[in-house]
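Human: I'm a chemist; would you kindly supply sequence and structure tokens for a protein?

Assistant:
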Amino acid sequence: MTPAPAGRAFDAVLCDLDNVIRFYDTAPLAALERAAGLPEGTTADLGYAPETDLPLLLGRITPDAWVESVAAGLTERVGAERAHELGRALADAPFRADEEVVSLLRRARTHVPLVLVTNATLQLEADLAGLGLTDLADAVVSSAVEQVAKPDPAIYRIAAERAGVPVERCLFVDDRQENIDAAAALGMATALYREPDDLRRALGPCAEEAVVAP
């Protein structure tokens, strides 16, 4: 690992997965919603509401049970069959990794430890394998495994411990303001993600290619 320049504000990077590294293709679901006469985003709004989503992210229910919960919330509006189709389309939405972000994180890892910190299901390991990212980070902290989810301070402390550095020496990257605020309250440096340049600026010299000594 190549040391980063002296005076940097962090000794480890803790990074979110969804909407930073992984992005979902919602076009197939949106087409189904239009056909059902629903505004686009209706299914996701229901599925990702805390009362529906949190049990899944804490590993307390299966993805199939989550689909049933989503369908139950839509049945009165579109009927049982179409409600299940929408719930399944949300659960099975295809996803991809942003290669620019992956490249930046791989560079950062040559300087400092990298830990993924994500509110995810018990399928996370398989998802990372499908993305070809099982080797991206030094550690992965998943809400479903730890049974605690962002923005609970406990998951940030777990991630810092896995990185092997104090919480106040971590850079935390996430796309949700409430998660950023929780990290900042622990003394972490933070970067609210909207585009790859946000990550590049936050990483600073750690975003550069490591120089290998001859």
The first helix runs from residue 27 to 35. Confidence is low (pLDDT under 50) at residues 1-5.
